[in-house]
Each structure stands twice: as structure tokens, then as C-alpha cells.
Design brief:
Layout: H1 13-32, E1 39-44, H2 51-64, E2 69-74, H3 85-96, H4 100-107, H5 111-114, H6 131-148, E3 152-157, H7 164-173, E4 182-188, H8 197-202, E5 211-213, H9 219-230, H10 236-246, H11 250-262, H12 275-281, H13 284-292, H14 296-308, E6 312-313, H15 314-321, H16 325-337, E7 341-343, E8 346-349, H17 352-361, H18 364-380, H19 385-392, H20 401-416, H21 420-432, H22 437-450, H23 456-467, H24 474-490, H25 494-507, H26 512-526, H27 534-545, H28 553-569, H29 573-582, H30 603-614, H31 618-635, H32 640-655, H33 659-675, H34 681-696, H35 700-709, H36 725-735, H37 739-756, H38 766-774, H39 779-796, H40 799-810, H41 816-830, H42 836-852, H43 856-873, H44 876-888, H45 906-916, H46 921-928, H47 932-946, H48 953-956
Parallel strand pairs: 1-4, 1-5, 2-3, 3-4
Antiparallel strand pairs: 6-8, 7-8
Helix pairs in contact: 1-2, 9-10, 9-11, 10-11, 11-12, 13-17, 14-15, 14-16, 14-17, 14-18, 15-18, 18-19, 19-20, 20-21, 21-22, 22-23, 22-24, 23-24, 24-25, 24-26, 25-26, 26-28, 27-28, 28-29, 28-30, 29-30, 30-31, 31-32, 32-33, 32-34, 33-34, 34-35, 34-36, 36-37, 36-38, 37-38, 38-39, 39-40, 40-41, 40-42, ...
Length: about 1000
């Protein structure tokens, strides 16, 4: 070791070895193709323990490995309020080396979403980015980088000062690191680490083998440092005193010895007593005293640098310190000589401890004033209001209207990059200024909007305060009330949300604003599971919705709410669907009710789609829910919003009998729901439908395990769940033969739903399921329940509702002949339904009944159709049951066929076109040269493939719904409709 150049990593051999092993493991994992690739290395230690020196060595080891890329960031005490500061430091080297086109290619579809957070572009005006979407975009970018620059090291020093937004992203991305060629190295001071969740999650593995804790140097280590710095002649007594003065702190030891050399003090026992005074100079007040000896200009330059933080432009420091170029250059030189600053045009403090000491030495009043000057200097330099905001937060309140406007502008920019907590800090500070009385309510409203998703309880307080302001602008009052209701809803205070809206509607004059508030009142009322006079609520809703003919947003919302209310009540489906369709523009959601419109949220378009789902227009529902996925992805809303869209698509695929696709969407939804924590409504909804899907696929044990894992059962949430969770739980109990428990659950369901007048037998087939549960003990009660279910279904009127009720009712019929007759009707109805799984069940049940009454040939035909359709749906248990029935009859299934979900054969299309023109099945059979039974099968395939019942068939085929039958229709004029070119694709083809 050369004299005067001490090794900064004395007694750090184990820590360096651990880092080297981590890098070797990363590189070896990549070379060997191991399943586990990356990892996390945590470096902890108190201030001055040498964390930065260790990270420097780690970066050097990695850089020496061929192809290894190192990205580095450092937290800053002064810039911890700058959102995504650490993320931008990590990305800066790789982004600076790329052209605009290459950056866009790297970010892909996430460019407009995560690009603003990365500092690549200004967000569009008025945008409010979803924080989860921004984090998902950053996940994508760093995953891409890990493939392009493999292996990749992400090194973050001073994690305890890292900005919150970067820490939240790091903590989420840390989970994925083992799957990627990435080593994440984090250094922090345990005593200074914030108690916030992201910081604690990041360091939760501190007791694992991938962590090192830096300790003070031993007396022997300090003695080695003394001799390396001052020469081998240094006396032991001098070295021991050096250790006592510094406590073995590596930073203080190095600085103390630098002072000794600077003053040319001989390292002898006689001079050991001088070390205590010298030691005081390297920390706290001693450092301040040393600075003051350099002159006022140098002191002010150091103060300005401390106020500005890290990566400090020297010109900006001079501006804040009010120094001319010559004086600034001289001050910078002096601070370099005294080991306070380093760098050239961009300056940096030699050690964070120095930066902290200098900053805290600034007199409070001076420090506040310098932050104000720094804010203006940042703005003048064109760095933007977001960069200036962290300085404005430190300025004393003084009723400065301009400062309030700057902070409000900064809050908008923070929201646009996905940093609501940063926006909240700005608006809280603006409120403390305080703003003019006329602007105060607006600031409180903006503050409430900023905290809506992250801190709804605080939102409630701010919005109530805004609404209490006298002379509040009516438009702002209306919007504040809407937001207040949303915040209360997020706190599961649905009653309070409804009451707030009802009170505001009562005091608002008649007009669009009042209609909007009334609509919102009914919306939040509709989401409550309890506490209604449901009949009165339905009557009031009808009184409001029926006379409306306007196209304003409030009227449209009331039409949707009325349509959904009729759907739940099991009123005629055509009436419910017509109301919902009135709210649309040429079949599309109006802009005011779009999926990403923040005024109403996604509840209203959800009700539109759910009405379509339960009225046999799965085609329209799927189109609507697919739009939701696209809009959420484009907007970067990849958290609960996207999870809910996946849930809706899973539900509509389940209803359509595409069970494997449904399970895939629902599991994706559940993964996103799990991020939000246990018990959220999305988790309940998704688990319920996933249980139903698993039961349909013949996996009852897996369904029960899922219910156990997520505690799916009583007590249930207060919010309305889609579909009815207690009904699904009763169905699960029934599937496992727990009839008594199922009967108790379903009886309670019936009492609850009957009290509301909700009789939709598809949304909750509780009567039919209860009939199955009690059939053995009380067959007469079971038949009464089944008959009532059929009557309710016929009143609702969809093919799915009637067919399902008939099929389930057949299971408790008094005789085999009665059961067969009911199943024949069920097959006929479900053949006109888009619900393929229900149709498959009816075919198999009917085939089984036909076999029992000795009609083997007809049974074989139904069972063969059933087994093929069940296999298409992915209903393994149903297919196995049908195959077993065929085997019992001495028959075997035909070869399976594959049907495209969106294509019709020529025969299917021709049959459908004739049907919508009013041609009866008998004449269609003549036209096609086949039997009536084959025609019915062709039409059943059409309904399944197009996802619609009879009413929606004209629109699905692109024909007017009122097309009349041409009395002169010439059958011979049609195309040659002989056997289809691909008989295997025709579900009605002969054996």
C-alpha cells in the first residue's frame, strides 16, 4: 500500500467477498440458464461506515466483468421530495445514449405512460397518471434493459433518502428480480430508514445471506489506516488515540488523518492529545467553523450547494449564492481543496455527512430565504415548476398568491407523472400559505382529488371543508360533492355517500346539475348491499328515469341505473336492455361515461355491460369490456381498474361457455386484486366467478381450496358483489354434497333477495339450487321452488334464464317423463342462447333422460352433441358424464370438431339469414335440404358463436332488426348449399 493512499475498505474483506459472490452467482446463472437468475444485496451501516466506498468497489468488480452493465443512483436528503429522482438517475445513462426513436422502442406502449416519470417528456395537460400503471411501465423498461444489457446491476446508495415514488417502485420490482438477470444492491442507514412500507419491504431480507452490515473499524484496523496515511513510523499510542477519537468510524478516521497531514503533525505519542481538537473539526460544528475560516463568499457558496442538493450545476450555485463568476470559481476551488466539494461544472459533496452538516449549519431564516431564491433560479434556468416545488415547500408561509399558483401547477405535474403523494405535499403547503379566500375552496378541492385514491379519509376532510365555504361556485360545489361521495364510497361508507348526494341534490335547482347529483345518489345506493327500502327506491328511480328524454349525462346515468335495476328485479329483459341502449351513442359509450372518465368512474359502464351480459347480449358485453381493457392499458391504469376489466371479460367468457379463457382472465384479475390487499370487492368478485368456473370445468376440490384460501364465505362485504357471492357459496357447498349447509345458506339468500324484489334467476339461481339441496328431504318443497324459478325466468324472458330454470327444475321433477319433457324444452330454449355451457348441460341431461325412458337413438344424438360441446367449453366433468352415458348405451362419441369463435359455416350463415327474415324452421329445412332438427342445431351454433340470443341476431349479422319476410322469396335463387366443405366444422353434420 502506498503511503498517503489508504485503502478505503480496510477490514471489509468479507463484505467485498459477499458482493463478488453475488455478481458471480448472477453471471453464472445467466451462463447456465438457471431458473433463478438475479438477487438482492443489502448493505447497511450507520453514517460514515463506508457504504459508499463498498458500493464503489462493487461497481468496479461488475464493470470488470465482460458485458456487465451498472446503473447507479443515490438518495439525497434535499431531493427526497422530488418524485422518481432515483429512477431517473438509474435510467439517465442508458437513455442519454439513445435517440428519440430508440427510446420509444425501449418503452414501447409505455412511452406516454412511464416516459414523463422517467423525465423523457412532459405529460399531456390535464393527464392524471395511474401510479400503478407508471410502475408497471417502469417494470417493462427495466425488464427490457435486463435483456439488452445482461447482466445488469441496479445500485442505489443512501436508500434511506430515496424519494418515496422510487422506493415504492423498487419494492415492487424487487419481487421480480430473481427471475431476471439483475442484481439489486441497496445501501442504507438502518437508524435513518423511514418507517413507510416500501422502505421496510425493501430491507426485509436484512437477515438473509445476501446482506452485509458494516461495523466500525477495530483498533488494529485504524492503526493500519494511520500507517498507510502517515507512514510506518506512526506510534501505537497515536493510533490508539485516533481510534478513541473516531470510534472506529472509517469516514471520520480518514478525515482526521487528512487534517493531521495537512497540518504536518508527527504521529507520535506526544502529539496524540492534539487529535481530539482535530476530530471536532471533521464533524458538525467543527466543520462549520472550518468553513467560516474560508470567508463569507465560500460559506455562501457551500450553503447554496447544500440547498440545491446533488448533481449541482456550478452556475446555479453561483446564482443562488449571489456570486459573480470569478468569486464563485474561487469559492468552488477552496471547497475542493478542503474536501467539501468535488467535480467541475457539476458539483457534488465529497460525503453525504458533509452535505448534511453544511445544510444544518445554515441559519434557519437564511436557509428559508435561500430556498426561495433557489426556486426562482430553478424556474429561470428552465428546469420547470416540479423541480422548483421542493424549494417552495421549505419557504415560510406568507400569503404569497404567486407561490400558491406555482404549487398548484406543480401538483398537477406530479399527478401527471403518477406521484399523488408529491402532489398532496404541494397542495397542503399551498393551503398553509394561505391562498386567497376565493381560492381556498378550489385548493381544498384539488387536494381532495389528489388524495382520493391514496388517502380517502383525508380527502373527505378537505372536501367537506371546501363545501362549507360560503359562496362556493356552483360547478365546483357539484364536482366537490361528487368527489366526496367517491371518497366515502372508497371507505365503504356507502350510506354516507348516498346521503351526501341526496342532500346536495335537494338544495340544487332543477336542471342538469340536479339530475347528475340524483343519478349519482342512486348509483351509490345501488352499490349498497343493505339498508334500502328497495321497492321504494325502485319506484323513485322509475319516476326519475321514465320521463327523461334528454341526452345530458345525468339522464343517461339514470337510464342505465333503471335498466340495471330492472335486470336485478327480473323484469322483462327487452325493457331493461332498451333503457340501457338509450344511454349509448350508436351503440358506444358517450365520452362522459367512458371507462377512464373520472367524474363517474367505471361503475356506470359496468352496469351497461352487466345488463347486456344478463340479457343474452354477450357480444355487446364482450365488446364493451374489451374496450375497457384497451382504454385502461392506454391510460396506464394497470392496477385495480385493469384487474376489474379482466374480471368482467372473465365473467362474460364464463357466461358464453369459454371456460378455459374465462379462467385465464379471472386468474389475471386475481393477481392484480391481490396487490390491493385482502378483502377488497374486486377480490370477492373474482374469486366468486372463478369458483363457478372451476365447478363448471369439473374441478370442485380446486374450487373449495380457492374458497378456503380467500375465506370466501360469510360474513360478506357490505358492497354489492357481481354476481351474488352468497349464492355462489351455496352452490359450492352443494357441489361438495353439503346439502344441509347449502340449504341454510340459500334460504338466507332467498330471504334477502325476495325482500328486495330481486328475482333474476341467472344472476342468482337460488331457488333452483335450493330445490336441489332440499329435494331428498322435502321433494314437494323442491318442486314448488323449481316451478317458481321457471315462472320468474319466463317473466324475465331470456332464452338462457328459461332454459337454465327448466334444466335445473327437471332434476326435482315428479316423474322421469316430466323431467324429460322439461329438458326437451330446456334444450329448445338454450339452443337460442349464447351460453354454450348451459346448452351442453341441457343436451347431456336430456340425453341421459332419453336413455332412461328407452329412446336410445335420440339419446345418442343429444349425448354426442353434448360431449362435443362440453369439450369445446372445457367442461371436463360434463364431457366425461356424457361419454359415460354413451358407453352405458353401448355407443361411442363421434370425433371432436373445432369451431372458431367468430366464424360461421355457409349453412349456419344461410340458416341465420333466413331466420332473421322470418322464415320458419320448416321452410329453412326445405331450403337447406335437411331436417328441422338439423336447422335447430345450426341456429343454436349461430347463437353461441355470435354471442347473442334471437333479439340480437339481426344486428350481429349486420341486418336491420325489422327486416320483413319477402313473400316472393325464391329459394332456388340462393347459393348451392349442399354439404359444407368442412363437415367436421359443422355441429349439425350427420354421422
Amino acid at each position: 500500500m502506498r503511503r498517503g493512499v489508504p485503502d478505503p475498505l480496510l477490514e471489509r474483506e468479507q463484505e467485498v467477498a459477499a458482493a463478488r459472490r453475488a455478481i458471480d452467482d448472477l453471471c453464472h446463472g445467466i451462463e447456465s440458464g438457471a431458473g433463478r437468475l438475479g438477487g438482492v444485496l443489502l448493505c447497511s451501516g450507520s453514517a460514515g461506515m463506508g457504504k459508499t466506498a463498498l458500493l464503489t468497489r462493487v461497481r468496479g468488480i461488475a464493470a470488470a466483468r465482460e458485458g456487465c452493465t451498472v446503473l447507479f443512483a443515490r438518495g439525497s436528503e434535499q431531493q427526497r421530495n422530488v418524485p422518481f429522482h432515483a429512477v431517473r438517475q438509474l435510467l439517465q445513462p442508458v437513455l442519454a445514449a439513445r435517440s428519440e426513436a430508440e427510446r420509444r422502442e425501449l418503452f414501447g406502449d409505455w412511452y406516454d405512460i412511464a416516459g414523463p416519470a422517467a423525465g423523457l417528456l412532459a405529460p399531456p395537460p390535464g393527464l392524471r397518471a395511474d401510479p400503478q400503471g407508471v410502475r408497471d411501465g417502469l417494470d417493462w423498461v427495466f425488464t427490457q434493459l435486463s435483456q439488452i444489457h445482461s447482466p445488469l446491476l441496479l445500485v442505489v446508495d443512501d436508500l434511506h433518502w430515496c424519494d418515496l415514488e422510487s422506493a415504492v417502485w423498487l419494492s415492487a420490482f424487487q419481487v421480480r428480480v430473481p427471475e431476471l438477470p439483475i442484481l439489486m444492491v441497496l445501501a442504507y442507514r438502518p437508524d435513518d430508514l423511514p418507517r413507510d412500507d416500501p422502505y421496510q419491504r425493501l430491507t426485509a431480507g436484512q437477515r438473509t445471506a445476501d446482506s452485509v452490515a458494516l461495523r466500525p473499524l477495530s483498533p488494529k484496523g485504524v492503526a493500519g489506516l494511520v500507517r498507510a496515511t502517515l507512514g510506518a513510523a506512526a506510534e501505537d499510542a497515536f493510533s490508539r488515540e485516533c481510534w478513541h477519537v473516531t470510534g472506529g468510524n472509517p469516514y471520520e478516521s480518514v478525515e482526521l488523518l487528512a487534517k493531521v497531514r495537512q497540518r504536518d503533525i508527527a504521529p507520535t505519542a506526544d502529539n496524540a492529545e492534539l487529535l481530539r481538537d482535530l476530530g471536532a473539526e471533521v464533524r458538525g460544528a467543527g466543520l462549520t467553523d472550518r468553513l467560516e475560516k474560508l470567508g463569507p463568499a465560500t460559506v455562501h457558496f457551500a450553503w447554496a450547494a447544500a440547498v440545491l442538493g446533488t448533481d449541482i450545476p456550478a452556475a446555479l450555485v453561483a446564482n443562488v449564492a449571489a456570486l459573480g463568476p470569478a468569486d464563485a470559481a474561487q469559492a468552488a476551488d477552496r471547497l475542493r481543496e478542503t474536501r467539501v466539494l468535488s467535480g467541475g461544472s457539476v458539483l457534488e459533496f465529497v460525503h453525504p455527512l458533509i452535505a448534511t452538516a453544511v445544510y444544518r449549519a445554515i441559519p434557519p431564516a437564511t436557509r428559508t430565504a435561500m430556498h426561495g431564491v433557489a426556486a426562482q433560479a430553478v424556474l429561470d434556468a428552465g428546469l420547470g415548476v416540479s423541480a422548483a416545488a421542493r424549494h417552495l415547500l421549505e419557504v415560510h408561509p406568507d400569503g404569497d398568491d404567486a407561490l400558491v399558483e406555482l404549487l398548484r401547477a406543480a401538483a398537477k405535474e406530479h399527478l401527471a407523472v403518477g406521484a399523488p403523494d408529491a402532489a398532496r405535499r404541494c397542495l397542503e403547503r399551498a393551503l398553509a400559505e394561505p391562498p386567497l379566500e376565493a381560492e381556498r375552496a378550489a385548493v381544498q378541492y384539488e387536494l381532495g382529488c389528489a388524495t382520493l385514491l391514496t388517502r380517502p379519509a383525508i380527502t373527505v376532510n378537505h372536501l367537506r371543508a371546501a363545501l362549507a365555504t360560503q359562496g362556493l361556485d356552483p360547478a365546483l360545489r357539484e364536482n366537490a360533492t361528487m368527489r366526496l361521495a367517491q371518497a366515502l364510497g372508497h371507505l365503504d361508507r356507502l350510506d354516507d355517500a348516498a346521503e351526501v348526494l341526496a342532500a346536495e341534490a335537494a338544495r340544487t335547482p332543477a336542471g342538469p346539475a340536479r339530475t347528475r347529483l340524483q343519478a349519482a345518489h342512486f348509483l351509490w345506493s345501488a352499490l349498497r348491499a343493505e339498508g334500502h327500502d328497495w321497492a321504494e327506491r325502485s319506484r323513485q328511480l322509475a319516476d326519475l328515469a321514465v320521463p327523461l328524454r334528454g341526452r345530458d349525462v345525468g339522464a343517461r346515468v339514470l337510464q342505465v341505473l333503471r335498466g340495471w335495476d330492472l335486470t336485478l328485479r327480473g323484469e322483462p329483459a327487452l325493457e331493461a336492455r332498451a333503457l340501457v341502449e338509450q344511454s349509448l351513442d350508436s351503440g358506444r359509450l358517450p365520452r362522459e361515461l367512458g371507462w377512464t372518465n373520472t367524474d363517474w368512474g367505471f361503475e356506470i359502464p359496468t352496469m351497461v355491460g352487466m345488463t347486456f351480459t344478463y340479457t343474452d347480449r354477450l357480444d355487446l358485453a364482450e365488446e364493451l369490456f374489451s374496450d375497457a381493457v384497451r382504454e385502461f392499458e392506454v391510460a396506464g391504469w394497470s392496477g385495480s381498474h385493469l384487474g376489474f376489466a379482466y374480471f368482467l371479460l372473465g365473467l362474460v367468457r364464463f357466461r358464453g361457455g369459454r371456460l378455459a379463457e374465462a379462467e385465464d382472465f379471472l386468474r389475471s384479475s386475481l393477481r392484480l386484486a391481490d396487490r390491493l390487499g385482502p378483502g377488497v370487492p374486486l377480490q370477492w368478485d373474482t374469486v366468486g366467478v372463478l369458483i363457478d368456473t372451476l365447478l363448471a370445468r369439473g374441478k370442485p376440490d380446486e374450487a373449495l381450496d380457492l374458497a378456503t384460501e380467500y375465506r370466501f364465505g360469510p360474513p360478506y362485504p357490505s358492497a354489492l358483489l357481481l354476481p351474488d357471492a352468497p349464492t355462489l357459496h351455496g352452490k359450492l357447498l352443494l357441489a361438495h354434497g353439503r346439502r344441509a349447509e347449502a340449504a341454510a345458506e340459500l334460504t338466507a339468500v332467498g330471504a334477502r333477495l325476495d325482500s328486495r324484489g330481486w328475482r333474476n334467476t341467472v344472476w342468482s339461481p337460488w331457488r333452483s339450487l335450493l330445490a336441489l339441496a332440499v329435494a331428498e328431504e322435502d321433494p314437494e318443497r323442491a318442486r314448488r321452488l323449481a316451478r317458481q324459478a321457471v315462472r320468474d325466468a319466463e317473466h324475465f324472458g331470456t332464452a338462457t334464464a328459461v332454459g337454465q330454470a327448466l334444466r335445473l327444475g327437471a332434476a326435482v321433477a315428479e316423474s322421469v317423463d316430466e323431467a324429460e319433457a322439461m329438458l326437451e324444452l330446456a334444450v329448445g330454449r338454450l339452443g337460442r342462447s349464447p351460453c354454450a355451457y348451459e346448452y351442453a348441460l341441457a343436451l347431456v341431461d336430456h340425453g341421459s333422460a332419453l336413455r332412461r325412458v328407452g329412446r336410445a337413438a335420440e339419446a345418442a344424438d343429444q349425448l354426442r352433441q353434448g360431449v362435443e360441446l362440453a369439450n369445446q367449453c372445457g367442461a371436463e366433468e360434463v364431457a366425461a358424464r356424457a361419454a359415460a352415458e354413451l358407453s352405458a348405451a353401448g355407443l361411442r362419441p363421434r370425433g371432436l370438431y373445432v369451431v372458431g369463435s367468430d366464424t360461421l359455416t355457409d349453412r349456419e350463415r344461410r340458416a341465420a339469414e333466413l331466420s332473421v327474415r322470418g322464415v320458419p324452421a320448416e321452410r329453412i329445412a326445405v331450403e337447406l335440404g335437411t331436417g328441422v332438427g338439423i336447422v335447430n342445431r345450426l341456429l343454436a351454433a349461430v347463437h353461441r358463436k355470435l354471442g347473442t340470443g334471437s333479439e340480437g341476431l339481426p344486428a350481429a349479422l349486420g341486418r336491420p332488426s325489422d327486416a320483413a319476410l319477402d313473400p316472393d322469396l325464391g329459394f332456388a335463387a340462393g347459393p348451392d348449399l349442399g354439404p359444407a366443405s368442412d363437415p367436421a366444422s359443422d355441429p349439425a353434420s350427420d354421422d
